[in-house]
Prior knowledge:
The chain is α+β, with helices and mostly antiparallel strands. Among the domains are: 19-54; 113-292, Pnp Oxidase, Chain A (Roll), CATH 2.30.110. The protein is 28% helix and 21% strand. The protein is globular.
Amino acid sequence: MLRINPFARLLSQPSCNLCRSRYRLENRVIQNIRTSSSAAAVAENDDVVAAQNNYKIIQEAGNFEETEATRPDFDHSKPIEITKSPFPQWNYGDGVPDNGKSLGQQHHEIDPYAPDRPMISNYRLVVSGIAPRPIGFISTVSSDGQKNLSPFSYFQVLDHDPPMFIVGFSSRPGRVKDTYRNIKETGECVINTVSENMIEAVNATSIDAPYGVSEWDVSGLHEAPSTTVRPSRVAESVLSIEGKVVDIKEFTDHQQPGMSIAANVLIKATRFWVKEGTVNADYSHIDIEKLRPIGQLGGISYGRIASTFERPRKKWDQEVPKSEFLAKLDAAKSNVK
């Protein structure tokens, strides 16, 4: 059996005929491996370049400074208004009280996997339609100690007992994001909330800084020590959540040439950190006026909480006696065998 090291130097030519034949065979194999490896690297690089040319998620904002200069100033002192609900006189069975307007518009069916539908159309449809979305501001550390801090649009809390969170890493040209690589290597992270006063610094961490440049330095945000994981907390955040990875799902069947793999990461909280003065006495409820959360919308747009309203959950047994409509539904249910 011929054992070959593809990275070894070419052998000096031996003297005997048999040895020379073996020499030529080994060198041909070595050259073929090197050629095929080089060709594969070139093809992979070509795929990445093609993917980058088709990747249009990063939206060009033009002369944004000029556009923003025409807009009114952000009012930091504006309180969050609490209003009545949109239809306080709503009754069971009323549906949407808009005189049928919402039913008069037809829907258009879309196949997200249609051959002629570009990926960017799915991206823009989803981020503009599923809004607002919380920003998952995640700090990680690589196995060799490199720190990373980055915001994520595909993030959400899943449960409270145990406290579970999910982060989505979408496919992108070239290698995976540093945050995903770090999480895979170490299984640890910190999730930090984003308030109005933080958004400029948080947005700055989304810049495509080269490997080795710390987003902590780029943003000017401050590190605070964690207890159960290596990554630091963001000291400016009202709430930070230390977490460890429970599961990772990679979508290998959907990976395209030149693009990194898409994945979902399930994270279980190991510690909560909440700022003093923002939470009630038993640390069970954060004051929204102190949190001042920012939501992500479509494109480069963000939203703030300007007003809220309340709608209590109701119990069937308490509502049936007060509603003729529910009483009829309840009676019909009782007759079903």
